[in-house]
Design brief:
The protein is of the alpha+beta class and about 550 residues long. Strands 1, 2, 3, 4, 6 and 7 form a 6-stranded antiparallel sheet that branches. Strands 18-21-22-15-23-24 form a 6-stranded mixed sheet, sandwiched between helices. The chain has a 4-stranded antiparallel sheet with strand order 13-14-10-17, with helices on both faces. Helix 3 (about 70-85) crosses helix 4, helix 3 (about 70-85) packs across helix 5 and helix 7 crosses helix 14 (about 535-540). It is globular and about 85 Å long. The structure holds adenosine-5'-diphosphate and magnesium ion. Magnesium ion binds next to helix 6.
Length: about 550
């Protein structure tokens, strides 16, 4: 590293803005190293990127705090949030994240106790001239002071986060070992303040498990937690409108991530492979085997390789199910609010009126049992408007004024009285595997930044714009960026190689990410990112209009 950044900056006062570029590289900054990795070309461009690197001695954290990967992840989130709070100016932009504990680029804590902060810094200018003295203050005083403040964290504060990390890890293991798909602790606050404010509702009704579904687990720090255990198979959530059904399902969707202390959903967990499924008319579908749901279309199209530029509500939802299973999902979460009715149900009267051979769709109600029994895929679905799922449900939860009740026995008694409805499918067969054509997934672009997230709604990937609004488990703008980088890495590292199936490519991605590849993925670019799950990577890939695939063995 070079010395005297402050003097260099002061010497540049009043010179042309482009000369900031001469500062690229590493500098000593007190006990840390400041790495200026990307310099903006003018004062109006997106901020420059800098990293502040502390070795273990400089960071001075207690070894106990970073003893496990889970503690390091939690600690990194805490430190990023502390740095964001400690930065007194908008000229320093640190990605502090939201309510979830995600591996993100903005702060990483190494297994050796080192700490790296990565952030955007708006290099100051007087018009197109360098404001050197101001820059020296920003980079050599304000930033190191803020980092110092972030790192001067009390043991008490850290333990809240690291103990929580230990507890959630233990809870997830216990829930899986008990054969459960999800768990919602008593006292949890599931409701959020608003659609745009993900913090817990202040005066909401805390969750309380029905007696019959209650389970207890022993956690290392929190002691005994009691709550509702959701078993495998088919779970139906019913109840009147506004009674909290969707709120419960959304908490489960989010339960694939860990949450920060104080979130209200600390001890709400769902199988890490649970995927939210919804209808999304207008999306593209490429070579998906949807024939279990859609067969003999009037157009004569082959639904074993179904491709469309403009899917309907039902075919988009069928594709979403098949794509999730292809990526390895073991639990599907579906809400009637965002589902296509004709893919969910077809009741006795409609079966009378419209003959089966005139109806291309096979409703999910006739497939979920087989998915569960023959393929080990659980379904949790919200359905307040039709009773047909009572025939196939293993358990029925009634939400009544935000309180769950177990009404399985009553529902089973009702299901015993025949409605005259006939089952319309033999069973579910896993779809044929697909192989992605690597060249169709190109991040090459002319002039523009290659990968750019539009919040959690869109991803620009090379020349293509991918609409991911309906991939609801993308919870964070930085995750959208992480997905783009993961897809790019998949092509570059040959995880997508034109031979392997989608599932194999995703396995290789996960292996690389776990084997420290995440750090590599984090470092390859000067951008705020959060590490995504394979399911959201697959969902984004599947929404690319340029995607080309063939089916395995063809
Ligand atoms: P449903 O899907 O059954 O129609 P929602 O889950 O959409 O109902 O909830 C309706 C409203 O009630 C929402 O505004 C939600 O924030 C609120 N709500 C949900 N659960 C709770 C709770 N436990 N305490 C207070 N308000 C809640
Ligand atoms: Mg609802």
């Amino acid at each position: 590293p070079r010395h005297d950044l402050s003097n260099e900056l002061t010497a540049l006062e009043g010179t042309s803005y482009g000369r900031y570029k001469s500062l690229r590289g590493k500098w000593w900054a007190g006990p840390a190293i400041l790495d200026i990795s990307r310099v903006q070309s003018d004062p109006y461009a997106p901020p420059s990127r800098v990293a502040l690197e502390f070795d273990a001695e400089a960071a001075d954290l207690a070894p106990d705090w970073y003893a496990t990967p889970e503690r390091r992840e939690a600690l990194a989130v805490l430190l990023a949030k502390r740095l964001r709070r400690a930065c007194p100016t908008r000229d320093l932009r640190i990605d502090g994240g939201g309510q979830e504990i995600l591996r993100r680029a903005s702060c990483t804590v190494g297994a050796d106790g080192s700490v790296v902060f990565r952030l955007g810094a708006q290099f100051p200018g007087h018009g197109r001239r360098i404001a050197g003295r101001q820059a020296a203050r920003l980079l050599c005083e304000v930033l190191p002071d803020a980092a110092d403040e972030a790192l001067s964290v009390s043991e008490e504060d850290v333990l809240v986060w690291t103990r929580h990390a230990d507890d959630v890890k233990a809870l997830r293991e216990a829930v899986a070992a008990a054969g459960l798909v999800a768990f919602v602790a008593d006292g949890a606050m599931l409701a959020r303040r608003s659609g745009v404010d993900d913090r817990p509702l202040e005066k909401g009704v805390p969750f309380a498990s029905p007696e019959s579904m209650a389970v207890e687990f022993e956690l290392p720090h929190a002691g005994t937690v009691r709550g509702m255990g959701v078993g495998p198979g088919v779970t139906l959530i019913v109840g009147g409108g506004f009674h909290g059904k969707s709120t419960l399902l959304r908490a489960l969707e989010s339960g694939v991530w860990d949450h920060m202390p104080g979130d209200g959903r600390e001890f709400v967990v769902a199988d890490r492979s649970a995927v939210k499924i919804r209808a999304e008319d207008g999306r593209a579908v490429t070579g998906v085997d949807v024939h279990a749901f859609v067969d003999h279309l009037p157009s004569g199209d082959d639904t074993r390789h179904f491709t469309t530029e403009n899917a309907s509500g039902s075919t988009s939802q069928a594709a979403a199910v098949v794509e999730a299973l292809e990526a390895g999902a073991k639990a599907l979460l579906i809400d009637e609010d965002t589902a296509a009715t004709n893919l969910m149900i077809r009741d006795a009267r409609m079966q009378e009126l419209v003959a089966k051979d005139r109806e291309p769709l096979t409703p999910l109600v006739d497939l979920v049992r087989s998915m569960a029994d023959e393929h080990g895929v659980a379904t949790i679905l919200v359905m307040g408007g039709s009773g047909d799922y009572m025939d196939v449900a293993d358990r029925v939860i009634l939400m009544d004024a935000y309180r769950p009740e177990d009404v399985t026995e009553r529902a089973k008694a009702l299901a015993a009285k025949p409605t005259g409805r006939r089952v319309e499918a033999e069973g579910f067969r896993m779809p044929r595997a697909r192989v992605v054509e690597p060249r169709s997934v190109s991040s090459e672009s002319r002039g523009k930044q290659k990968i750019k997230a539009g919040g959690t709604d869109g991803l620009r990937f090379g020349e293509s714009d991918v609409d991911v609004r309906s991939v609801e488990q993308i919870t964070d703008p930085a995750m959208t960026t992480g997905i783009g980088l993961a897809i790019e890495a998949a092509v570059q590292h040959g995880w997508i190689d034109g031979e392997s199936t989608v599932a194999d490519a995703l396995d290789r991605m996960d292996e690389a990410l776990d084997a420290g590849g995440a750090a590599e993925l984090l470092r390859i670019r000067d951008i705020d990112l959060a590490v995504p799950r394979r399911y959201e990577v697959a969902a984004t890939l599947n929404r690319m209009r340029e995607l080309r695939v063939r089916q395995s063995g063809e």
